[in-house]
From TrEMBL:
<keyword id="KW-0028">Amino-acid biosynthesis</keyword>
<dbReference type="InterPro" id="IPR002986">
    <property type="entry name" value="DAP_deCOOHase_LysA"/>
</dbReference>
<feature type="modified residue" description="N6-(pyridoxal phosphate)lysine">
    <location>
        <position position="66"/>
    </location>
</feature>
<dbReference type="InterPro" id="IPR029066">
    <property type="entry name" value="PLP-binding_barrel"/>
</dbReference>
<comment type="pathway">
    <text>Amino-acid biosynthesis; L-lysine biosynthesis via DAP pathway; L-lysine from DL-2,6-diaminopimelate: step 1/1.</text>
</comment>
<feature type="domain" description="Orn/DAP/Arg decarboxylase 2 N-terminal">
    <location>
        <begin position="41"/>
        <end position="296"/>
    </location>
</feature>
<dbReference type="InterPro" id="IPR022644">
    <property type="entry name" value="De-COase2_N"/>
</dbReference>
<dbReference type="GO" id="GO:0009089">
    <property type="term" value="P:lysine biosynthetic process via diaminopimelate"/>
</dbReference>
<comment type="subunit">
    <text>Homodimer.</text>
</comment>
<keyword id="KW-0663">Pyridoxal phosphate</keyword>
<dbReference type="InterPro" id="IPR022657">
    <property type="entry name" value="De-COase2_CS"/>
</dbReference>
<dbReference type="GO" id="GO:0030170">
    <property type="term" value="F:pyridoxal phosphate binding"/>
</dbReference>
<dbReference type="InterPro" id="IPR000183">
    <property type="entry name" value="Orn/DAP/Arg_de-COase"/>
</dbReference>
<feature type="binding site">
    <location>
        <position position="334"/>
    </location>
    <ligand>
        <name>substrate</name>
    </ligand>
</feature>
<dbReference type="Pfam" id="PF00278">
    <property type="entry name" value="Orn_DAP_Arg_deC"/>
</dbReference>
<feature type="binding site">
    <location>
        <begin position="290"/>
        <end position="293"/>
    </location>
    <ligand>
        <name>pyridoxal 5'-phosphate</name>
    </ligand>
</feature>
<dbReference type="InterPro" id="IPR022653">
    <property type="entry name" value="De-COase2_pyr-phos_BS"/>
</dbReference>
Amino acid sequence: MYFHGTTTVNGQGHLEIGGVDTVYLVQKYGTPVYVYDVTLIRERARGFKQTFEKLGVKSQVAYASKAFSSIAMLNLVNEEGLSLDVVSGGELYTALAAKFPVERIHFHGNNKSKEELLLALEHNIGCIVVDNFYELELLESLCNEQKKSISILLRVTPGIEAHTHDYILTGQEDSKFGFDLQNGQAEEAIKIAMGSDHIKLLGIHCHIGSQIFDSTGFILAARKIIDKLAEWNSKFLYFPSVLNLGGGFGIRYTEEDEPLSPDSYVKEIIIEVQNRTKSYQLPMPEIWIEPGRSLVGEAGTTLYTIGSRKDVPNVRKYLAVDGGMSDNIRPALYEAKYEAVLANRPTATIEETFSIAGKCCESGDMLIWDLPLPKTVSNDILAVFCTGAYGYSMSNNYNRIPRPPVVFVENGEDYLVIKRETYEDLIRLDLPLPSKINQS
């Protein structure tokens, strides 16, 4: 049994997170419910920052908020002195509502709308990560109209494939993201940005994928980008003040996963950039990274109530829970794997193997296949670990199922930070058919 962060078994024999009994949390908030270990999030954030500080490298650690965004989460990120990566107008609006310091907000995305860019310009955010020529032209036009200036990074694809699931690769040449590093697109974009009266080109950005378990991909990406930067420096005296190598640092979902520690990723990236720039006699740029999953993934646990059971003789035993692909779609999308225990009896003797089914009307709504568990009955509580990233943020109302609440726990205290949706919430935006059509 592998526990993350402050998770443990308490004196009552129940699973405890952040000093709070999970059985108590279920009694108070119901199920399903997402529970976040705030202490673990703080430890991860400080681990990334302190590694840069110890090595004396100027940096920004920006939380990739697509992993999980809420006002309370962004309050926490701000408390820890991180920057913030947003990828939509909605994430930017949430950051503004959370009063996140605008100078530490970085806006990503491959198809930002005019309205989203105007919102960014209106609030003078710290940086826009420009993804394509259309956006570069649109941003120049809007800055001219608004009499504004903005700092940018140019996103490039370095042609490095990370060892991860095909659907979440983003750094290879055949990608919807960024300017290609090899075919001249990135160089042309740099020249355009350098010629602008309104755009300040801070540097270069890349992101090579997600759930990466070693530093090889980051090192190769840094090497290719710096080699190209050295070429551009010779050609037209351009060298960035910022090199953003993205995120994608892996976490442990199951025993099959063997990620590096956060400080190991950072150290190896820094050493490569230092050595490569030194070899070209170029200045050391400021290093930015964008951890998302690695900050919140292992900190999240989803608690469910077990309902029905179905035994298929000589085939499989199913247990159904009161959630599923509406609160965790990753198993259906990516065949993602998770570990789980009974929160009310985590140390009971393992007796059977079950497959955990969700309640959605889809045969593919399966959370975990072949999970060893004790003898299990209805109303037992199942705790599924490592659901802190892309659980709530990808949750949905399929089958008109309300989204679960989110609770933060820390030092024996629990805080409701997102309310459970109600049936009334589900129809709040619905409009009836006009009476004239209705009567016909």
